[in-house]
Amino acid sequence: MGSEEHRQKAADTPVVCAVLTVSDTRNETTDKSGRYILDALGATDSEIGGYEIVSDDPALVRSTAERLCASSDVLLINGGTGISKRDTTYEAIQSLLEKTLPGFGEIFRVMSYDDVGPAAMLSRATAGVYNDTVIFSMPGSLGAVRLAMEKLILPELKHLVWELVRQRH
Q1: Domains in the chain, start-ordered, CATH in brackets?
Q2: Is the entire prediction scored with pTM above 0.85?
Q3: Rg of the chain's alpha carbons, rounded to an integer?
Q4: DSSP code string of 67-117
């Protein structure tokens, strides 16, 4: 069975998504990237299972991610993926992942190169699976979030969840 057939079988899969913004400066009013993710999900038949903003503290990021994963099929994280001292999302999420999806970060950086040139290498976007929940961690800029959501995540969202739940029955 090929990926297109898998997508067709996954078309009716219900998906519950949570959104986590990691930022020391954003709030619900100024979180354009988090709002974009919520709006993009709202244009699908996905259910929103939670939305939170936390500061860039690795223990807080990890504990919030664990809690949101307990009630979601997909956790979409934006922010904290750079290389500054305060950017710790990558380490917090990598320490959770049971399986990684390295292709997400690799493809994201290749696609980002068209927009930002060699600065794309500064992105530590990552994805994987934790406790039967797919986690995507992407940069916090609105352009990066749009790229990740429109070109990579939304087209495969149901397929990814279907792959995790199909063998439970």
Answers
A1: 15-165 (3.40.980.10)
A2: yes
A3: 15
A4: HHHTT-SEEEEES--SSSTT--HHHHHHTT-SEE-HHHHHHHHHHHHHHHG
